[in-house]
Amino acid sequence: MKERLVILGGGESGVGTAILAKKKGFEVFVSDFGKIKEKYKQVLINNEIEWEDEGHSEEKILFADVVMKSPGIPDKAPIVKKLHEKGVKVISEIEFAAKFTKATIVGITGSNGKTTTASLTYELLKYGGLNVALGGNIGKSFAEQVSEEKYENFVLELSSFQLDGIETFSPHIAVLTNLSPDHLDRYDYKYENYIASKFRITMNQTSQDYFIYDADDVEIIKWLSQNPIKAQPLPFSVKKELNQGAFKRNNEIIIKINNKEFNMPIATIGIQGEHNVKNAMAASTIATLLRIRKQTIRESLEGFQGVEHRLEKVLKIHNVMYINDSKATNVNATYFALDSMENPTVWIVGGVDKGNDYSELLPLVNEKVKAIICLGVDNQKIINAFGNVVETIIETDSMAMAVQVAYKLVENNNTVLLSPACASFDLFENYEDRGRQFKEAVRNL
Fold first, then answer.
1. Which residues are involved in binding ATP (predicted)?
2. Which residue has the higher pLDDT, 235 or 329?
């Protein structure tokens, strides 16, 4: 009797899992409450996988032996509740696919910096000659890449939602870049639930594994002091010297593992800013553990130009720089962006608020922002938060309009920054769509 796997969600992770499951002899059924994109439908049809969209057939779903739920579907969804009531196991793509590979897995999570750290780590390992793939919350589905059976190493960017759906998944190297309140709407508005979710990345690790984390992060240190972990800890810090791990000394990054030291001048790193120094520390620690040569690490860090939609310089028009930071979907990410602004800034902000507290941005907004352009369906919270600090606040409901308004407001040597601090689903398909629309609107000025 074939094991029956039902997949909820027909996107990248759902279809990737379907391909792997079919190859491994499962009976597979894909069900999406929304509409499955044409390119994914074609893949399902070509692989002769049964699917449905625009609704769930309960009798087909509840009959599953195991269910893979796409990260975007909350546990509160009626169909997921019914599965839990029936005692059907609901897991994530990461949990399902990891069982079918013997590759070395590097798992990277955190509220911010995980995409940059994962992309940088991938570049370091690839440049160092390892057979490596990048997946998880970024790029091509992890499950689909496992089905190709050609990679010896995986670098996975992992969201808290993907970690919620694991039981036995255990990366050889786990990274927690930082913690700040995010997605609280999915965690009963309790920060501690979200934090516990992130730390699931190390729950199955053993003393043969490594846990890399930000030693300057108060919440991380607090959690670790109360919850012992089995993995070998490798902290990084820009504030203090460490006996083991990565730290800053005289404008250099020092990586110290098992009494061996490696140094790298900060000034030569391709991506600047203190948060990027931390991302570079985490990535270099991973590369060092996987025996990449020091010179190779230095060269890769010098050449790395960053990730699309993360403080990406788009164009300079009449001495005004337009910057796309659409990937900033929470307050902490926007904090980094505003902090790195050197000129008076017109700030485009807004979208779907996930329980944001804007108060930590007030000093930066006061110092750097000359005008705010709201880009969302409901902007009241932003207006309330910054109305007393910024004279000009304008509401818009399309990217083209937001960019046009910005163009009219700027003067010589200003910066226009799209850094929404919110999710994008009210007006856009996702943050990539939002970022691309911004770039297009800027190029059309």
1. 110-116
2. 235
